[in-house]
Specification:
By secondary structure, the chain is an all-alpha fold. Helix 3 packs across helix 5 and helix 8 crosses helix 15.
């Protein structure tokens, strides 16, 4: 809906369609996984690192399935710390899919962070900065999504050492991780322009689509005017939830991942293949940072885990390097011109059936990946 993730375009953008892609959803169904077993598998990942297991109140009070008693609930997955050092919960209407399997690890990462700093004074019970909390959940998911890890937990029969299959995997990751970056950035650039007065109130929708075209290369499928307020369709805008935290997290999670992989002594293979499962060394490094909460300035927390005090896009670029190289090669061979015009073009009429999907194609995905790499590297 917001083009913050382009994962639904994977079937159109897969570099090598004849090669297998990783999707354990059929295996989860075949092995009769339910929500509880998926959560227990996630918990075992954390304890394999020597981290804190989910406490009994978590299992007693979390809502991990959609209620069947008629209650109406918000199914969006979220993690909750009730600030009493005892009560920690996840709320999620779990489907038996790979996406939800990854989401469980992400949300449990939030709870693990909460558990690690629960003994700090109340004022320091929080992430080192808002982006850290999101990054912790995601950095663990980077390991969990690897074929190596899925095989280790019995959800994949074999791991194929095949560059073409690796490129398919990296493209699937890029459609989520890379496509998000321009969206994560423009959300608060848009709001800050309203707050500082540079965008007048009679151009609020125009400014939104100007930034969407500039950074994401998309346009609305039908004519939009100031009678519309499209930004409000994104929850964080009307709810006044800062969004730059997500942009930050999508960069620093790769810094964390690189540091944890080094601690796990997995430096002899590409970063995208690293799985820190069962590494007590990686778990200790992570725990030492998490337990700080917000008691130290975030550069000190960053230094605790990575050895450096600044946000750095280098590990993100390194993670996707094989895909970047392949995209550069393909665009060179096809004499493609990178980028898109920052125009106000839009179709004259809605597409058949009134669909509100943005228009895009395989080339745009490739261009998006390359442009975003260049954009992030400038940070």
């Amino acid at each position: 809906m917001w083009a913050q993730s382009w994962s639904n375009l994977q079937d159109l953008t897969q570099p090598f369609p004849d090669k297998p892609s990783v999707d354990i959803t059929p295996v989860l169904v075949e092995k009769k996984y339910d929500a509880l077993r998926m959560f227990q598998t996630s918990d075992e990942f954390f304890t394999s690192l020597g981290l804190i297991a989910m406490p009994q109140p978590f299992w007693d009070k979390s809502m991990i399935e959609k209620p069947t008693d008629g209650r109406e609930v918000v199914c969006h997955a979220s993690a909750w710390d009730f600030s009493n050092q005892i009560d920690f919960r996840i709320k999620q209407c779990t489907d038996i899919t790979m996406d939800d399997f990854i989401t469980i690890h992400h949300e449990m990462g939030h709870i693990e962070y909460d558990l690690q700093y629960k003994n700090q004074p109340l004022v320091f019970r929080g992430g080192a900065n808002p982006g850290f909390h999101e990054a912790v959940g995601d950095v663990l998911a980077l390991s969990v999504a690897t074929p190596k890890h899925l095989k280790a937990v019995g959800l994949l029969d074999e791991v194929v050492d095949d560059l073409e299959a690796d490129l398919n995997f990296l493209m699937s990751m890029a459609l989520d991780k890379i496509a998000f970056l321009p969206f994560g950035y423009l959300m608060d650039e848009y709001r800050w322009s309203l707050f500082d007065g540079s965008t007048p109130h009679d151009k609020m929708n125009e400014k939104w689509w100007e930034l969407r075209t500039k950074y994401q290369g998309i346009t609305p499928p039908v004519k939009r005017t100031e009678a519309d307020f499209d930004p409000a369709a994104k929850y964080h805008i009307p709810a006044d939830v800062p969004y730059i935290r997500y942009f930050v997290s999508f960069v620093i999670q790769f810094q964390f991942h690189e540091a944890l992989c080094k601690a796990a002594n997995q430096t002899d293979e590409p970063l995208y293949k690293c799985d820190i499962y069962q590494s007590k060394e990686a778990g200790l490094l992570l725990s030492n940072m998490l337990s700080l909460g917000s008691s130290k300035p975030w550069p000190e927390a960053m230094e605790q885990i990575t050895g450096q005090r600044e946000m750095d896009a280098g590990p993100l670029v390194e993670y996707f390097k094989p895909l970047t190289d392949w995209l550069i090669e393909q665009n060179t061979q096809n004499n493609e011109e990178l980028g898109w015009p920052e125009s106000t073009w839009m179709p004259d009429a809605p597409p058949s059936g009134g669909s509100t999907m943005v228009f895009c194609n395989t080339l745009l995905i490739a261009v998006m990946s390359l442009v975003t790499f260049l954009f992030v590297t400038k940070l």
